[in-house]
## 1
Amino acid sequence: MNRSPYITNAPTVSSIMFKVLLALLPGIIVYAWLYGGGILITLALATITALTTEALVLKLRKRPVQPFLSDYSAVITAWLLALAIPPLAPWWLVVVGVAFAIIIAKQLYGGLGYNPFNPAMIGYAVLLISFPVIMTKWPAALSFAETKLSFMDQFNYIFNHALPASISMDAVTSATPLDYLKTQLKLNQSMDAIQAAPIFGVLGGKGSEAIALAYLAGGLFLWQQRIITLHLPAAFLGSIAAMAGIFWLIDPLQFANPGFHLLSGASMLAAFFILTDPISGPTTLKGKLYFAAGAGIITYLIRVYGGYPDGVAFAVIFMNICVPLIDMYTQPRVFGHEK
Amino acid sequence: MNAPINIAGLLEKTKDVFNFHGGVHPPENKAQSNQSPIGQLPLPNQLTLPLRQHVGNIPNITVAVGDHVLKGQLIAEAEGTVSAAIHAPTSGTIAAIADAVLPHPSGLSDRCITITPDGNGTWTKRHPQDWRQGDVKTLVDSLRLSGIVGLGGAAFPTQIKLRSARSPIHTLVINAAECEPYITCDDILMRERYAQVVHGIEVAQRLLDAGSVVIGIEDNKPEAIKAMQAAVDGTDIQVKVVPTIYPSGDARRLVYLVLGKEVPHNKRAAEFGIQVFNVATALALYRYFEFGEPAISRIVSMTGNVNQAQNFEVLFGTPLMHLVKAAGGAKADTSHYIMGGPMMGFNLPSEDVPITKAANCIIAASPTLFEPPPPAMPCIRCARCADACPVRLQPQELYWFAKSDNFEKAQDYNLFDCIECGACSYVCPSNIPLVQYYRYAKSEVIALDKAQEAADLARERNEFRLARIEREKQERAAKHAARAQGAKAAKTADKSLATTDKQAAIAAAIARAKAQKDVVSTAPKNTTGVSAATKAEIAETDARRTAAGLTESKATDGDKQAKIAAAIARAKEAKVAALDAKNNKAN
């Protein structure tokens, strides 16, 4: 180095991203245990798609391929999207979603560091809007389902859309708890009756709540490693809990309790892994609180009043738009300046 | 030295200090150079003294090549207000006054005085002064001859900081934080020369008339703290132990650490009633007044990739390699030398540079000591830099603005508050040389301002020139006119003198004409709007009246007047008749 500072002490971008992948592992393991090995196929498929498209576009943009492929950021996008979509999604859905996320939402904006939106959430939103039926059909957690699909069955279903003759699709899939709750409430079912359904667990969805807790554990690992601070997760989960708490206190028969909202859908994944994407998020501490709280409120409102069962992707994308504004208005007081 | 920090002890020692935001804690690397006492160098064969060693004007040379000078003799005197004198560090002969490479990042050459020592070290006559009782103004004024500048690295002439300020100084802060890694010159100075340091602080306190004095020392210098605490016993000087957080030695940060006061960004600490002195500067003050010794040497840490890192008392102008040799020589893989610390220092442009007043530390660098950084990656907006910034700036935003040449926005985000401490670069996962971007942006803004100033000046000059041309044109025209008028007047005068009779005749004629005019002017004035026929009527009546002698016209030319009036009336009548005929015809 020929100019000061001559010394540095910082983790590399690669090591930061790699730790994020590591932190996702507990959630993935619980996921695979509950829903079967199909998720591993989806993850592998997403990873290959992400790296291929990233390399291809970097080459077209005449950028060095190797340093950018080894920063793991494309793999994070791939994994987040793979974990967000239903586990038995057909292979082409994964490929389309990831390719869109990497090519359109990331590389066309300038690649790493330049994307204004979270690429995984853009990919998710595109899939949800384009293929709503597939995107909202989730298999019941295998461990609790009567009909079990083997790893090869899942492989066949993902690539050939074929199930063993004895099993019908309806037997393995069902609505997600958030989806079920919404439709049943419209049918004027009482909250107690709805939550007595077999897809519900202790607080969230049966099985999925365990995955949520595993994400929480991974997130705390990131915090311990000082990759993230708790500003974003706390503000996001706090605002969801606050919203859910107020509505639930007003009418517990019409609105699910805060615990359900914290452990359902993508709450935990978003809190620790999606909102914490530094590139598309705000940089000031105060801004992080506004950003995450806003995302939490919008997520809750979409869940309760919107057209989709979960609202994380849209909430995050909307708040991404607000980031420059948030950053601008939350500048901390500079040393020696008046407020 | 790098033992784990005793948290309880730390809290105990650092209570009543005010931590600033951010900061970093790089490996200290101070143990290499602070284990042995201050070393003395053999006299080098040559001393090269750049005129440009301080902030401000270049001093005027007062010697010539071939002159013999004594140790401490003035060889260049301060020029203008902000400047510092230069003295011969030892006795010898002025060998040359020529350009040589400066120890400056630019690598430029500039005027230097080269002395060949005679080896005797004969002092010139020294003038000690009574700093305890002497007149403050006299003492401060005499500092102009001391050559003392801030020895913390800024090299600002000390005299300026001691002149009676517009706002009185209530607190003197002594900067002994020495927060940069590797550097130990202040540490060793306090350990060995604590008594003189305290006297130096007393000098500054008296000259500033400061009510309270606080010394800030980082807690990684326990020996220095102990020595200073013992030395200030019985004085009103207070030693404050501050935590080891870079950049605690930055003046504004240190003031906050020890006093809890933020110096406003647009004010100097002095305007705020606080003055900050480096500990070594204080000692230099003492030696100047007590012994009459001007600034001719300083303590320099020679460390890094050398065989025996140590602090040395170095005469200004000593060749760098002479110092390196004294430290056991550089190891084989030494690539270059750094002046200052690893956070804010710079590469010396050559091995053939002298040690100057600003040189607190020289680090021999090697690729293993300071690894070349991996290539920079894009900013991922992780804001670790913002967490580290001691000024609470947003380095990631400043980087973005500097990179896109958006200097106006960069200034909105307080670019010029950046102290270039390098904490942001130190923690950047993408290895972005952030400080370089800020230096670039600052220099661009300054250059643009200068260009703007020059353009304004040029425009002003042009406008002034145009105005001058216009003014001269008018003046010329006026002059011409005046001259023409003058000529005319002269001509008339001549004529009048020559022909007085004629003049009298003319005057009579004028008088007559006037009289005639008076008659006309007595005519009713409200005739403008009336028809030609009515006018003719009026004229006729007038004529008749005149003829009858009813008007006040003078009798002398009454007949003539009447004749004229009658003639006019006739003419008018004819005209009216003609007009009427024409009108009738037309109808």
## 2
Amino acid sequence: MNGAGTREERFTRLWSAPPGLRGWLTEVNNQPLGKRFMITALIFFLLGGLQALFLRAQLTVSGNDLIGPEVYNQLFTMHGSTMMYLFTVPLLEGLALYLLPLMLGSRDVAFPRLTAFSYWAYLFGGIIFYASFLFDVVPDAGWFAYTPLSGPRFSGAGVDLWLLGLALVEVAGITAGIEIVVTILKFRAPGMSLNRMPIFIWAMLVAGVMIIFAFTTLLTATFMLELDRAVGTAFFDPGRGGNTLLWQHLFWFFGHPEVYIMFIPATGIISMVVTMMARRALVGYPLIVTATVLIGFISFGLWVHHMYTTGLPDLAMAFFTAASLMIGIASGIQVFAWIATLWGTRPRISPQALFVFGFLFIFVLGGITGVMVAVVPFDWQVHDTFFIVAHFHYVLIGGVIFPLLAGIHYWFPKITGRLLNEGLGNHSFWWIFLGFNATFFPMHIMGLLGMPRRVYTYPQELGLDGLNILATVGAAVMTIGFLLFLWNCWKALRDGALAGDDPWHGDSLEWSVSSPPPVYSFIRPPMVRSRHPQWISEMDDSRDPWVERVRDAMDCAPMEFRATLVTDTSHAKPEAVQPLPGPSHLPLVVATGLLLAFVGVLMKFHLLSIGGTVVTIIGLVSWLWPDRAWIDLVRSSGIAAATGLPVLATGRGSTDRWAMLSFLAVLATAFGALFYTYFYLQLFSDSWPPDGITRPAIVLPVIALVLALGAAFMAWLARRRSDTSTDSPMLFLAGALVLGGGSGVCHVLGWTHLNFTAVEHAYGSVFWVISGVLLLTLLLALIFTVAVITFGKGHWDDREALALPMELMVLLWGGLAIATVSVFAVLHVSPILLGS
Amino acid sequence: MKGKRETLDYDVAGTPPVSRATSRFSLLAGGIAWFLHLIAVYVIGEFGCVAGWGEWIVGGLSMVAWSLIAATVLTAALAGAAALTAVRSRKLLGMALGDDEAVQVENRAFVARLAFLANGVFLFVILVQAIPIFHFLQAC
């Protein structure tokens, strides 16, 4: 036993950060970072809740002047932004980052340094948001920031803070999304095939994919709006060929899926808790998975139902009404599956069970009003009234916060090792539940009677004072409930009863380790043979000698560096051993560089922006640069021989490949949003390019295109040479550099012949931004190629070490080739085909 | 070291009854078809109407309606093909499951079931989304 203890202690030291502030700043492990995400999100929740109380107090009686219209606008902007961007999604991401390795049977998430970067970017973004209070420039254009209200003409520096803070939070969200997706696809325990994944994992997988596409669209849109404000481009300025409705399209293409990005993980939590409550397998597992995937897909097709009053063609609105109604099918499948699971059982009434019942009651009501507002004529009647406020709070609080509270009660013992007090938990539920309904149910009636939203007061003649007083009292009651919940958490942390490893007799893997879990999660990779590994006692059954050999070799190993097992995407067959980085200051450096760059933009202090950008680039290059000493350490460890698996995996076994594919998906989405912008602006333009602007000559773009394709082909040849022989692929790599560089020169030369800038007309804005993003992508591919050359120089015979950088480089060049062809087709071919 | 016993838990001996490509097609094609349909109806509905296609009548129907019908038929066919592929995969994998409970087979059977359900709903959604076309046969 002593020997085992020593072994575990050494392993714990390997997986722990150094003590003190240095360790705190360089931490990359998923457990402490997941907790930081959750605690930071809860602090923002308190701030957002406080703002809501002020808003509610202002509306208690008609004609009230407690905070006045300006502060009201600022507070409702900050309340919505805080809850949507700084609280819900980060809390869910934090919970997922904490739980994923425990539920999947791995030791960490796929990219530990990315987790740390994501946290710092999120924290810095939130600080930028809230810095607006210090400088008295609080944003006031709503959490949706519709143009032209958020444009340079009608709003001040607050919107800049909002946009740049949001950009950092979006970057954090996208990186966390990639982290979640790749971890789920590649870090599942042996045997955990797709059909055996816990529903929460399915939900996070779908939400992670959605985050990548939805957040990138918003990031592109915020980038465009900030360019309008800071540089003077004309994307959203109708006077110069822009279009204000374009913002709404781009925003809601993010905004509607955003609701489901929050809701889908919440349904995953409900499925986990319902299974525990019923003490039997979830009814209709395949149906629930199907419904989750369907919601993920269809939610991207509903954005127009936020825009029924903007004058869209009736035909377009009719399609989106149909799609909006269809999502009710998928949600209905889930609700009926939960009810069927609980049917005939006698669940013990615990706080988490109460929050599940509360969720079912409130969410169904919110869902029904959602179907109502999906119908165009009804939406026209209640749009911009308190009916909508009631609807989305029923969906967001009932459909997301209640499940989150159920989840916190469920996993709190695992995370802290302490049990929450059930009596206090039950009390907090009833205060929150009754307070919530007293606050928001009357708002349906207020809305139907004509009380407008987003306005600081209402006429006394509407006769709504009584309902508003009731709503304010309800808000106070709900606040008491949340305070009770926080008090319960605080009390449990101080002197709560010890939870033990598995207080609920849960079915998933996290309940097989101690509470709180060891920092490495699993000392020996678990084996999964069913959907409920904790309920089926064959978890450690040794049926397969090959898998047993892999698991034995990974038992408390390797000791030289952090590592976990990589498995097949679909049926979780062991594929490789993935070395993972230890504590690093680089995530903080890169996030700080971004912060400085953004602050420089805000203060119009360009030197600071340039400095921040340089710090970011240096940090990123240091982060991504292949380290030969590290590779040698990994190869010499003996873990590859012991497991029979590669430690420098390529192809499907490499997480880095998935990271590159995710990055390309982000890039494709950004280009997609920009192409949509191009055609949308063209549609509403009298002539395209507009009068006075000459269509760009096509010769140089054609040459740039051919050279870019040639460079991509050279990169492919270099990889082929590297894979098949020990000869140097230097000739092909140099060819890629020369051709790629030539393509870049042609782009720049083409720009010098343009007779328009990015500011005089929206055509110029979109043209310059699309071609600028393309050039940046080309630069990235060139830098990557230089890195491969530097890394490989003198070691061209080391095919194993070169394989991964080569593969990633070819993927990047392939993405660039597709982007170049697409940009060429949009900017230069489409004007010829479509005419003006 | 490779013997039948060693790979029993994961891989079926010989060629799996349903290939990875077929499995992926049946899983993803319905969703892609729905997405393409949505993009098509949005682009045709919004851009086609603004561009005046609604006034271009051919065979009693506007070009907007014709384009929408074509988009619906093509995408519904794709979703339907994916659903049928999923049905066939389920059948093949169901037979294989009887002989060998390899994780790979069990997993692909699950994917086939998932694909069948999802493609069925996607096909239904595509058809429901096409209903408005019949109210706008000659205009926008």
